[in-house]
Design goal:
mainly alpha; 8 helices; 80% helix
Length: 202
């Protein structure tokens, strides 16, 4: 009997029950996806796609955690695994690309209007959740002045590239933690299902 009670004990993240944690987190993710469309900038096909994918993932996670559905949770695990692969690939070129983009002032050469540039920047910042980082970048560029020297541009590029490194590490770590949490809940669901089937057998 003691073995059964141990197996049936709901998994926790420290003192926080994993199932409730995933339910609350998925609800927040759904609200984020809905609010993303109602942002100040004009929604584009990219923003609609991102919001739709975010909504579907969190809706699937909510259903899986609420109903203890291993199939839905397994789909979420696959999405997280694919996302971590993309982040690892991005780690090899995005920091260097971002640093070069800032230090070379290439954004000033783009053939977009100021309004379009602002919308693109706001969209990327909201998608990646880099609002505090963008504020810091604006501060660095303002500190460098409108006619920044080569050294100042180099320093700005190094700072921005380093922040991309930190952001990618943080996002990958968060996805990995969520992946492990879902995996633990799936193991609990499988163990409980196996125990119930064993109890039904004559």
């Amino acid at each position: 009997m003691s073995d059964q009670s141990i197996e049936l004990k709901s998994p926790k993240l420290g003192y926080i029950p994993i199932r409730q944690f995933l339910i609350i987190g998925s609800i927040l993710g759904i609200l984020y996806a809905v609010s993303f469309i109602s942002a100040e900038y004009t929604p584009t096909i990219v923003s609609y796609t991102f919001a739709a994918l975010t909504f579907l993932f969190n809706a699937c996670l909510f259903y899986g955690a609420l109903k203890n559905n291993g199939i839905a949770l397994g789909c979420c695990q696959k999405v997280l695994r694919f996302s971590m692969v993309l982040l690892r690939v991005a780690f090899f070129f995005m920091p260097a690309l971002a640093a070069s983009f800032v230090s070379s002032d290439y954004d000033k050469e783009l053939k977009f209007s100021d309004a379009t540039n602002y919308k693109i920047k706001e969209l990327l910042v909201d998608i990646l959740g880099l609002r505090p980082m963008q504020a810091f970048v604006d501060f660095v560029r303002k500190h460098g002045g409108s006619d920044a020297t080569a050294r100042q541009k180099f320093e700005q590029g190094v700072v921005f590239g380093g922040m991309w490194v930190v952001a990618l590490i943080v996002y990958t770590s968060l996805f990995y933690v969520e992946y492990v949490i879902i995996k633990r809940l799936r193991k609990f669901i499988t163990a409980r299902k196996g125990m119930y089937e064993h109890q039904i057998l004559p």
